[in-house]
Write a structure and sequence with these properties.
204 residues; mainly alpha; Tetracycline Repressor, domain 2; HTH_TetR; TetR_SbtR-like_C; Tet_transcr_reg_TetR-rel_C_sf; transcription regulation; transcription
Length: 204
């Protein structure tokens, strides 16, 4: 009887250990995936999109096999990052639509600039790979925000949709220019542009 009880107890302990191991392994895998993503952004920002995945894995302190389990190819990793950038921009659009007083356009532009600065290593691929529906959605967002800003009187009536879209494109050049703080540089760039877009009555 003692032998049977002991055996059963050991079996239960083994089952508990196995049960506990599953969530722990999943947590470890999720942590490794996030470390790879964060490191990939850093490496691409520092060295450009041509940087190899071997370097990313090494800098993350993980094996190349771990990287390939999460991202089977370098292109899969890049496409994931682009998806995240577009998701950030979509979130910024939703937030901007709720901004009072017609200030959503400027808030959106500044949020997009921050996202571009944080992912500057992927910008070339972003404009190449962004799906046409996403680009069209962004265009409609900017058009709506511009109309709201002009209705509220915080942006001049002669500012066009093309003006604003070109402003957003110009941020890429600022972000990719040599400098220690691309996020700060692109915000200063937008300071000057939006100062020129405001009516004289609301200059600040």
């Amino acid at each position: 009887m003692i032998s049977t009880a002991t055996s059963g107890g050991n079996q239960n302990t083994g089952d508990s250990t196995a049960t506990d191991a599953g969530p722990r392994l999943r947590r470890d895998a999720a942590a490794n995936r996030q470390r790879l993503i964060t490191t990939a952004i850093e490496v691409f920002n520092d060295e450009g999109i041509e940087a190899g995945v071997e370097h990313i894995a090494q800098r993350a302190g993980l094996g190349i096999g771990t990287l390939y389990r999460h991202f089977p190819t370098k292109q899969a990793l890049i496409e994931y990052l682009i998806h995240e950038i577009l998701a950030d921009m979509a979130g910024a659009a939703e937030t901007a639509r709720n901004a009072p007083g017609g200030h959503g356009l400027e808030r959106y532009a500044r949020a997009v600039a921050n996202t571009m600065a944080a992912h500057r290593g992927c910008l070339a691929r972003l404009w190449e790979r962004a799906p046409a529906p996403e680009q069209e959605k962004m265009r409609h967002t900017v058009a709506d925000l511009l109309r709201d800003a002009q209705t509220a009187g915080v942006i001049r009536d002669d500012v066009t949709l093309t003006d604003v879209l070109m402003t957003l494109r110009s941020v890429r050049g600022v972000v990719e220019a040599p400098g220690d703080n691309p996020a700060q540089a692109c915000q200063r760039h937008l300071d000057f542009i939006f100062a020129g877009m405001r009516p004289a009555s609301v200059q600040r």
